[in-house]
Every structure is written in structure tokens, then in C-alpha cells.
Amino acid sequence: MNDYFIPLGGADEIGASSYFLSVDGINILLDCGARLKENELFPDYERILQEIDYSEIDFILISHAHFDHIGSLASIAARAENAEIITTQDTKTLISMQLLDLGRVSNHKESERIVNERLRQTQLIISRIHTQPVMRPIERKDCRITFMPAGHMPGAVMIYIESRHHSVLYSGDFSIHSMFGVNGMRLLTGIAPDTLLLNAPNTYMAPEAWTEQIENPEKFSGEHNNYAWLVSFLTGRLQKKQNIYLYSRSIPRHLDLFYFLRSAFPEVPVVLEPKSRSVADKLSDMGYFVYGTSFRETPSGLEDGYIVVGQNSTRENCVPVSFDCYSLHATPVETLHLVQRICPHNVFLLHVKPDNMQKSLVDVLGETNPDITARQAVNGTKYYIRRKKTMKHIDIFQRIMDNELARAREEIERKHGASAQFLAERTAICGSILYPNMHPRDAYQNVKDLFLKKETISYSDYITALGNVNLDTVDRRLYLLHRVEQGIAWLKQALDGDTNGIEKFADFTENLSPREANTHRLIFIGKCAVIFAICIDPDLKNEKYLPICIAFGAPYCNRLLRNLRNCLMKEYGIRRKRSAQDVLSKTKEMLDEASKVTEAAESSSKSEIEKLQFENNNYKSSLEAAQSMFDELWETLDENAEEAKRTAILSFYSMMNSEKYGNLLDSVEFVEKTLAELKAQKFKTPAQLKSLTIVFRQLARFIKDCGIKPIDTTGREFTACADDLDGYEYIGNSYANEEERTVIVEHPGWKFENMVISKPVVREKEEEEGV
Fold it and tell me: Which candidate, 755, 570, 731, places its Cα nearest to that of 650?
């Protein structure tokens, strides 16, 4: 399938962070948090089921132990039974305490039965978690995963994922500088992710605030700015002999709070309420240094001007301050500098509530680094991810599309403009693919902003187009999306040189306009696939080819895809296993089906006008499909004729170069080479042999003009191991493991296009005896 990521929660909000990533067939869930105050606590895990089954999730990777990143771990881990859960040892230890704390932290009352069930689930989940040290890559299922210190809290990491075609960095929450006993973030040397999933909770600001931070970055570094207001506020109150009540409902935040107090107020008396003391004891038992010399159980005997730590929201005779509002995060300008430092192709902003009245990091990057594509991610939206390397045979795709572009421009010029119908259908198809579950009005608004620049398509035109392309229900849109994604994924495998991908893409092109089973309406898979490739797929899309989408209809798009298929199969010498009779049989089946549909319509209870409209649409669709099938028939006949020609040529020259006929191709090559050497030596050919040399030269020219070419050069001497001689016939002693030998080409071998007539023959060079 295509490579993509979907925010399930925590994209355009702070809370319930969870991001589904699928690259090179590897399915990864990054974090699984929960919300603290909303009615819907957990991320939208059912969104995954539109793509894969829960059992197909390979990994659950946890960045850190704050509740908004691990609060739903038990829920999703129970569904994703096959997933390997990986995090750091510190995070694993804190997770157990956090999951058992769910009811209290979320303010939801829970029965004893629920509490006991969560205890059982937590124990099962904890037993499944594998721990991994930072800066030590692990290899899993054709990908490499590396945890890097994030500096946000003890155990927090950034997650770097490298697969065959992708490198993705998930930042998690991070801090640049070391503070309160926690070291700042640290990256691998030379890290160069193509895609950055960036937690950026504070990156919507007034334009003047951005300007000030960019011009004075040292003034706004986290080292000087984080917690600065809180320290100043608490110091002012303490100097006035006021007591402070610092409260938090989170266990990891308690850890941050204890580190903060020991660092910022080491001499100020700190009183721990019983619940917070219990948390401190547990953290201390885990090995964390939480108790300062000024910590105590009661305020007895203390003068005013002390700090109380608890979990309620108020306390008598104290100024209440919520500590849950504070944590170690990079400042906006530090976040900007991180992006500029690693310079990814794509950046997705996460863990931030958008504010359209403010200037975002996306806006800033658009001004400072236009080569970086940055966007604000939205929960539930599917984002396709571009590969890091160009496909091996992308030139084939581009060559075909350039040819079709010329035809499309001619067609548009002939019609004095783009077809309004095809323009509306392109818009409807893009909206259906990008937003299959969304109400058409919302999808129309989104896709209009993305794709319609000078053109005007009304919502009424959009709805009509949805009906024309048979995408007027969610189920149809999801079905088509799955088929198109799979077909384009096979096309990209084919363009990357994967012969299995070529064969699957060829199968995909066999029926690009199937009929829906219950309504018998045509599904325009071919047309949708072409539009997906040109407008949406990050590896293939190119605005230059947009005229193709609006110049022609479905049959044309089907032919375009089959042309791509034929060129790729020819490149790799793969022959389609389909005869002209197969095409004729399929055409007959299609026309018979159309006839049955018409008969069914005539016997229905519809009005005469409705029947006529239906029959008209059915005849039109049937004629288009028939035309497409006849095009397929001619292509098949041409393919069969070409294949017969190639087979005959191959058979003829294989016979010519056989031992039975004295290896004539090799002989011609030898004679031609000998004549060239004699000519260089200014040897005068006897008159009796001149006619013979002319015949040999004409024969050599005839062979070349027929496309017969030598694979190697007779007499070439080279050093090779056994693997290097794949495609050669070898004469000599058997090779030992990884042994290299000097060999000499005795016969060059011959090929016609990409078909081998005879393999080159090499012989082991005999060692010369000493004098």
C-alpha cells in the first residue's frame, strides 16, 4: 500500500497523542495518550480499521510517560495483540503507575470492578513492554528504530524510524536545554529525516512575537525562559511571606515538580500532603532522587513563606498554583532552529491547538525555508509521505505522461477550453480520495481550497460530479480509495524495478471499469487512479500534467495506464498471459451484463423518464466500456504480433549462433575484428578475397541493423568472484567461497533488445609458468 500517517488524536489539540504511521508495509503506532477533561477520553482508534486490522499493527512506540501520551495504552494494546511495545526503562516504570492512576487523573468515577480489571490489564501490558537504551538502533522487520534523548522528562525520547524508502523522525515532546536534573535533547550525528512529525505546542504567536524571537533567539532560549515566570511569581509571593500550594494530578508531573523545587528553591521548606508523599515514596523506590533537605510532612513550626505540594486545587491559607501547566518544552524559536538544522522535506505540526488569528510555524517556514513543505496536521486526516529516493524507472512514467500532456493540450485547444464536466469530476474524485468519510460539503470546501485556483466549481456541480463518477456514498469512496491506492502502490513498485510489482500492476489494469454488483453502475478505477497519481501521490504528482485530468474521460485514462503497463513489461521482458480471445470473451460478458441491466430497468417501477435516463446512462457507459475493451483488443493483437516477431527473431539468431551452424554470430564478430586489425596494419587484401570481406562487412551491418548486439567483448580480461559471473557461462575449476579469479571472455554473447540469444562464455585464465 501507499506510505502515510494518520493522527488519531493530538494533532490539532493538546491531549490524546497517537499517530498511526505505515511505511514500506510496516505499521507503527506512535504514542497512545488520553484526554483529561473531554467526554471522549481516547484517540480515534477505529480510524485504523479503515486501513488495516488491529492485528496488523507491528509496533507501539512510546515517547514518554506523560498521561496524554500513554493514557490509552491498555486499551489499544489489548486490541493490537501482535504489536511489539517498545520504550525506555524509565518510561516503562512510570507507565505502570500512570495506567493504574487513570480514574483519578481523568476525574472519572470508576467502580471497583473497573479498577480491578484495569489492574489486570496493566499487569498484562507491562509484561509485553520491551525496553531499549537510547542511541542504540534496533533492527526490526526491515526497519531500524533509534531512541534519542528528548530532554522533556526522565525517559523521554525522540523516535527515528528508517525503512527501505523512508526516514521519519517523531519528536515527541522535547527540550533543547538541560534543566532540573534532566539532560536536554541529543540527536544522532548526521541525522537527515525526510519526514518530521513535530510536537510544537507553543508555535502559534503574534507576528511581532515571532519577529522578536527570531531576531533575539538567545533571549528566548529555554535555558532562560522555561519556568521563568513561575520562578518569578513564586519568589515574589514567598518574599511577602505568603504560602504557595503547588498542585498536580499527574505522577510524572510530580517528578518534574520535585526536580523543579530542588533546583529553583532548595532552601524553601516544602510540605508534602499524604497523596503526594505517597507518589514521592514510589518515585524514590524507583531510584529517582526526589527528596530535598527541606522536604517535610507537616507545616508545624514553620513560619509563613513555605510551599505545599498536593493534588487538590485549593488549600486554606495558601495561594494555589497548578503545576500541570508547566513542562520542559523547546521555545518557538528553538523549534524553528531544530527544523532548519535537520532540514526535512516534510514537516507535520502536532500537539498544538491552531489559532487562525496568530502566525504559525508553518507560516514562518514558508518565509524562511520555502523548500520545506510544512503543514498543520488534523486529527483523522490521511497524509501520504514521499519517498526519500526517486524511483528507478520514473523516466518511463514521465516520458509517457509528457506524450499524453501534448495530446491533452491539443484536445483542450480544439475544444476552446477545458471540459467543465471533467474539471468537476476531477475535483469530486480528489475530494472523495482525500476525504472519503467527510460530508460532501466539507470535502468540497477543503478540496476547493487545495485544487481550484482560477477555476470555479459550485457545490451543485460537485454533487452532480460525485454522481457521475459513482462516488456518492462513503462505502463507494472507501472501496475506490482502497483499489486506487493498491494499484498506484503496485505501479510505484514496478517503476522501482520490482518484477512482482509489474505483474501485479498488469493484473490491476485488466479491469479498470468494473460494474458495481448490486446497482450495475460502472466504477471508474482507471480514471481515479490517473487523477490520484497526478494530483495526490507525493512521488508521482506534478501540476504540469493537470491538463490530462480535464481533457479526456475514463477510456482514455484506462489506455494511459495500459500504456504504462506495456512499457514496463517491455523494459523487463515480461509477457502478458492473455490472448485476443480472452479480450473478446470479456467484452461479450460486459455487453451481456449491460443488456441484463437494461431489461431489469424496463421491468422496474420507475417512471418512464427515469427509465429513459437510466437506459441512456447505461448505454453511454456500455459504449465507453466497449470502446475501452476494443482498444484493449487491438493492444493485445499488437502485443501478440510483436511477441511473435520477437520470438521468430530470437529463434533465428539462436539457431545461427548454435554449434550446429558453427556459432556464426561469434564468427562474424571475430572476422570483423580481425579485418579491422589488418586494416590498421595497412595489410593489402588480395584481390581474390575482396568480395569475401565485403560480404562479411555487409553481414555484420545487417546483424547490427536488426538490433542484435554483443553482451561482452571477446578477449576482455577481468577479475571476478562467482557472483560476478551470474549471466555468464564459466569454464574452469570450481570457485571456493568469496574467491576471485582472472577470466577471459571467449565468446561475447548476444542479445536482441532485452532478450538473451546466447550467454557470454568466459574461461579461467591459466597461470603462466615461470621461466
Answer: 755
Question: Is 60 exceeded by the pLDDT of residue 280?
Answer: yes
Contact 749, 758 (CB under 8 A): yes
Q: Phi-psi region for residue 477, left (φ > 0), alpha (ψ -120 to 50) or beta?
A: alpha
Decide: 703 and 714 in contact? Cβ < 8 Å: no
What one-character DSSP code corresponds to residue 179?
B
Pick the residue with more confidence: 340 or 513?
340
% of the chain exceeding 70 in pLDDT: 87
Q: What is the DSSP string of 218-261?
A: GGG-HHHHTTHHHHHHHHHHHHTT--EEEE-S-HHHHHHHHHHH
* DSSP three-state, residue 711: coil
Under 8 Å between Cβ of 393 and 496? yes
For residues 100 and 122, give the distance between their C-alpha atoms in angstroms, rounded to a whole number: 7
pLDDT of 339 over the 90 cut: yes
pLDDT (tens digit per residue) in 608-626: 665 566 556 555 556 655 6
**What are 528-581's pLDDT values in tens digits?**
999 999 999 999 999 899 899 888 888 889 889 988 998 888 888 777 655 555
CA distance 39 to 29: 23
Place of cell 538502533: 137
Per-residue pLDDT of 16-45, as tens digits, reads 999 999 999 999 999 999 987 766 889 999
Radius of gyration of the chain, Cα coordinates, nearest whole angstrom = 35
The alpha carbon of residue 510 and the mean position of all alpha carbons in its chain are separated, in whole angstroms, by: 27
CA 625 to chain centre: 34
Residue whose entry in the numeric block shows the C-alpha cell 480535464: 550
Per-residue pLDDT tens over the stretch 148-185: 999 888 899 999 999 999 999 999 999 888 776 678 89
Sign of CA dihedral 213, 209, 66, 224: positive
- Please give the order of strands across the beta sheet that includes 307-310: 295-296, 270-272, 307-310, 244-247, 319-322
pTM of the model: 0.75
Give the pLDDT of residue 106: 46
- Is residue 74 within 8 A of residue 118, CB to CB? The reply is yes
Scored b (16 or more CB within 10 A) or e, 104-140 reads: ebbeeeeeeeeeeebeebbeebbeebeebeeeeeeee
Phi, psi of 323 (to 5 degrees): -85, -15
Residue type, 213: Q
Tell me the C-alpha to C-alpha distance, in Å, between residue 468 and each of 225, 464, 624: 58, 6, 14
Question: Environment class of residue 457 by beta-carbon count within 10 Å: exposed (0-12), middle (13-18) or buried (19+)?
Answer: buried
Output the CA–CA distances (angstroms, integers) from residue 492 to 2, 141, 382, 399, 572, in the order listed: 9, 21, 19, 15, 15
C-beta separation of 352 from 203 below 8 A: yes
Which pLDDT tens digit goes with each residue over 291-305? 877 888 888 889 999
